[in-house]
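dumping this here before i forget
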Amino acid sequence: MAILSVVLAMLLSTGLAAAHAVAEGDKGYIQEIYGVHLVPFMYLGAKHMVTGYDHLLFLLGVVFFLYRLQHIAIYVTLFAIGHSTTMILGVWFGWNVSAYLIDAIIGLSVVYKALDNLGAYQRWFGVQPNTKAATLIFGFFHGLGLATKILEYDIAQDGLLPNLLAFNVGVELGQLIALAMILIAMGYWRRTTSFWKHAYTANVLMMTAGFVLIGYQLTGYFVA
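structure:
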């Protein structure tokens, strides 16, 4: 519950507006520099992942009931492949996709995972979705969400590919840092008697946060 509370606090404190975005303070830097800047872009990528509450909520949902490191590695790798692919391709080819709709789908990914953890699909429909395929597919949307934000910043073409690759390396490093923090906290929580007592509530809260993200982004889409 503590982990989810922290993430939800981040969600509320950022006023939702920064969902899946690069911080405003970094926007000017991205727009002003030219050429290859591997370390700064790596830092920006790591910062995006560590502070991206939508990423963190989805990752938390993915590992919530995973106990073996090999299983965690499989799912995180699938997510990383999806995220990296569409982030790089989206920026490189300039895919023009509504950021509101993409961010709404990212909110849907949080809802999907929370419902999966609650066993809703088996109870309601008698089927279990392929969770590995779903993690890869939602990884594509998470990467596309970031690509839409980077495109808005009119990043320089000079050094674009090396900078994007460095950014992506930073994203993966940030993901490992965030994942390590989540797993450490989950490890302590799972040892307590309150874990199974509050696991249901935690996933309901996670689902609620996902619906809030969807509602906010769809509202922005229709009023923009």
